[in-house]
Every structure is written in C-alpha cells, then in structure tokens.
Amino acid sequence: MLIVVLMFALCWLPFQSYKFLEIHFPRINDYYYINVIWFCMHWLAMSNSCVNPFIYAILNEKFKEEFKLRWNKKLRIFCQRSGNNNEGSSIDIENNVQVQNVGMSAEPVDV
Prior knowledge:
Shape: elongated
Structural class: alpha+beta
Low-confidence stretches: none
Mean pLDDT: 78
Order of helices and strands: HHHEEE
C-alpha cells in the first residue's frame, strides 16, 4: 500500500505544484513553453491510473497465480486453434516446455 501512495504522490506532485504556483504567482502562465510543461505534468498525473494495476500485479501473489493460470489456458486454446504443425499441443509457461500429444503419450519438447 505504501508503494501505491508514493506513486500517487510522485505522479501528482508536479501538477499540484503548478496549480499552487499558478494561484500565488499568476505570471507563471506567461512563460513561453508553459503549455508543454502543463501538458507533461497533466499527463504524468493521469498516468497514475495506468500504473496502479501494474503495481498490484507485481506485488500480489494471488494476482500472479491467477494471471499465469489464465494465460496458460489462453495459450493452450490458441495453439489448438492455430492449425499449425503443433496441433493438439499445449505450452507450459512455468517450465518453458511445449508438450506434443502423440497417440496416448505426451513427450516434452524444448521450445
């Protein structure tokens, strides 16, 4: 939770500082490149919403497990639908092995 709060402060501090300066020193808007500076600060502030899911994904173990489970299922479906030479195969992400189903046995093949 501390990382989320620190990231929020880091993203919003420049924009809020500008707003503070704009109130107390209105001539700040007379600078030539203030529109570019404002755009960059505003973009940084809004990017905080995009950063939060990545922070949660990196730090939450349950999220990591569920993410791996979902992607492993999607990759299996994709490989089965692709119609290439690996038809009927699946990919084990954790072990970096592609398993080919040949007859009754499955033999691991390095990817």
